[in-house]
Design goal:
The structure holds two protein chains of two kinds. By secondary structure, chain A is mainly β. Chain A has no helices and eleven strands. Chain A has strands at residues 5-7, 10-14, 19-24, 31-37, 43-50, 55-58, 61-66, 71-76, 85-92, 99-101, 105-110. Chain B has one domain: Immunoglobulin-like (Sandwich). Chain B has strands spanning 4-7, 10-13, 19-25, 31-37, 43-50, 53-57, 64-70, 73-78, 87-94, 102-103, 107-111. In chain B, a hairpin with a 5-residue loop joins strand 4 and strand 5. The chains are: A mainly beta, B mainly beta. The interface between A and B is medium-sized, with 26 and 26 residues.
Chain lengths: 111, 112
Amino acid sequence: SQQGEEDPQALSIQEGENATMNCSYKTSINNLQWYRQNSGRGLVHLILIRSNEREKHSGRLRVTLDTSKKSSSLLITASRAADTASYFCATKANTGNQFYFGTGTSLTVIP
Amino acid sequence: DTAVSQTPKYLVTQMGNDKSIKCEQNLGHDTMYWYKQDSKKFLKIMFSYNNKELIINETVPNRFSPKSPDKAHLNLHINSLELGDSAVYFCASSQVNGAGAFFGQGTRLTVV
């Protein structure tokens, strides 16, 4: 299976703290993306990092990519209650357009 | 203006029935997908279409038949529904260059 793994499966933090989620994958990739899913909703694209990039920022999000370890991390700084959601990484291979999703991290930010 | 819309949002049906889920995107994207999310939130790709042509069929039972009348629509027809088909089905679209995908709100299918 090309599905990636994420850890932790669940994370609970206080508002204002930073949240870090990790993603490991198995195959060579063209890019890696992070998505958020609020309960009962569809997925929302957050950020994309290409295989030749090591770090990317977008607002309070920071993503790193280590292709030698086949891993990525998503850091959300100064978390807010509204950040409570499930976060998924998704990898795109060098061929084809499909994305393979990780198992997801459920983040709870306590006000 | 909804970018990717799928209908219905909820679908409850009995085993053995045939049902369809419709999906439309107004983003002008060339590629559309169907994903299945199970009760543990695992998201698994089912089909990928590029310009109405099937690209990927990830070992999905042939009871599932996607149909793409044009590149803005990708419908999913399911024959002889089984209990294990209960899940949330997401339609998505992206540009060919593999940028971020846009997802619909999902269809929660419950087979009883």
